[in-house]
Write a structure and sequence with these properties.
alpha+beta; six-stranded antiparallel beta sheet; 5 helices; 18% strand
Length: 166
């Protein structure tokens, strides 16, 4: 017997309702295997898989339709020149929309991709300070630099309205 939901639509079969949700495959899983001795943690980030070692975000793994697939290095602009000799194919990430970003990508379509990704893992394992960032705490809305200005403007407008009413 086919069951209908309250809305009149056909209800999915019970085996579909209780089926385990399929997980997306881990992109470039060999990177996590190389970092396994450090006990990396992963979390979603920008549609990628962020890799944390301790409190630092060190990499993001991306394999999606479009550009910038590969291993994203969490670094800063000051380290780009020092990292370039070790990673000749490294470049800024296009999908972030800036010409130069702190994040750099080791492109999956580069001929030395796996070698470069494993080299990055070795640098992370050695504690290289050029790779990895401690994410900053998220600012509260009231802590933003413009919040004080907006509050002052609102207070001045309220005073002006009260004066105008008499």
């Amino acid at each position: 017997m086919v069951k209908r939901s309250r809305s009149g639509r056909l209800a999915p079969p019970a085996d579909e309702v209780f089926a385990a949700r399929k997980r997306k495959p881990v992109p470039h899983e060999f990177v996590l295997e190389a970092l396994a001795p450090l006990g990396p943690e992963t979390r979603p980030l920008f549609g990628c898989l962020a890799v944390y070692v301790g409190e630092k975000i060190v990499l993001a793994l991306r394999d999606k339709p479009g550009p910038d697939n590969g291993v994203w290095l969490a670094t800063s602009e000051e380290h780009h020149a020092a990292l370039r000799p070790e990673f000749p194919s490294m470049r800024s990430i296009e999908v972030l929309g800036k010409s130069v970003t702190g994040w750099q990508v080791l492109p999956a379509d580069a001929p030395d991709f796996e070698e470069a990704a494993l080299r990055a893992c070795a640098l992370i394992e050695a504690g290289d300070p050029r790779i990895g960032k401690v994410p900053g705490e998220k600012r509260k809305r009231d802590d933003s630099p413009r919040a004080g200005a907006a509050t002052k403007k609102a207070a001045a407008k309220a005073r002006a309205t009260r004066r105008a009413r008499g």
